Amino acid sequence: MRRIKGHPWVLVMGESYEDNHIEVEKEKETSHLDDEHEDNASGASTDPSRPPGFEDFKRHENIDQQSGESSHTSTMKRYKRNLVKELCYKNNVHFLGIQESKLMRLELFRLKSMWGNYSFDYACSLARGRSGGIISIWDLAMFIKTNIWCDDHFIIVQCKWTNSDYMYFMINIYGPHDTRTKATLWNLLRTFIQTHNGKVYVVWDLNKVRDESECYGSTFSQSEADCFNSFIEMTNLVEMPMGGRRFTWMNKSGTKMSKLDHFILSESIINEIQDLKATVLERGRSDHNLFSYILKNQTMVHTHLSSFIRR
């Protein structure tokens, strides 16, 4: 299958990015934005956080506005990064999927602040306008990556666990809001899964519910639910039932609630492993709940910010 949409800002990085001395200073980035843009256009950037082939589609034209970011927003960003880092450490995470990232320019030290060290490989689809980005990060010592496909709404990493012979497709999705775009996404992913042999892990924020019981206080679209359910059925995927709470998202006033987050696996994985379970945890400061997935010797934790896989 071809590389989907093939955007040049989709990055796949290798072992050379483990160096602990790599660091990007924000002040230096600000003063050299124009030079860096020219380097990227020619494919000759010397900035280690922007390797050859990286192009910044959204330039930082409002530097003063960014530097004047409110204290509350900065505190929330630090809180989220620290939360991810803590969960990665406690659960010995080996695969991390971040959804709705606001990064419009890749910065290794921000990825490291969530992962905990520089011993990782990753791929990303950066944020564009109001559309959040997607980042997948994995442990080089645990995963053998063989291929990657990226799109505005998903990242697929084809890989093997180092202690397994099975091929896996780790799919990280941040679903679109537009109905037509959603239908296009389901068709694209269905074709991909049906034409590739391997076990599938899908972690996503779909911005969609499967039936009317999964939403409260908001409009339910039967046609969109049917399209989504048809995709799951035709790809032989199975959603893990979640305990703990009925909904995974709630607005600030508590008048609207939905189950927007889903964790779906190949049916073959469900059949092979009987002690599979998922638990919805506390929301914390986020509008989405955390999830804990237990799969024998694997633990997976998912938030609206990110999802984790541990083995």
From TrEMBL:
Region spans: Disordered? 20-76
> In the UniProt record, does the keyword Hydrolase occur?
yes
Q: Look up keyword Transmembrane helix and say if it applies.
A: no
Q: Which Gene3D superfamilies match?
A: Endonuclease/exonuclease/phosphatase
Keyword annotations for this protein?
Endonuclease, Exonuclease, Hydrolase, Nuclease
Amino acid composition bias (Polar residues), ranges on this chain? 64-74
Note the InterPro entries from the entry: Endo/exonu/phosph_ase_sf
Q: Which GO terms describe its molecular function?
A: endonuclease activity; exonuclease activity
Extract the coiled-coil ranges from the record. none
Q: Where is the composition biased (Basic and acidic residues)?
A: 20-35, 53-63
Provide the protein name.
Endonuclease/exonuclease/phosphatase family protein
In which organism is this protein found?
A: Artemisia annua (Sweet wormwood)
Its organism's taxonomic lineage begins at: Eukaryota, Viridiplantae, Streptophyta, Embryophyta, Tracheophyta
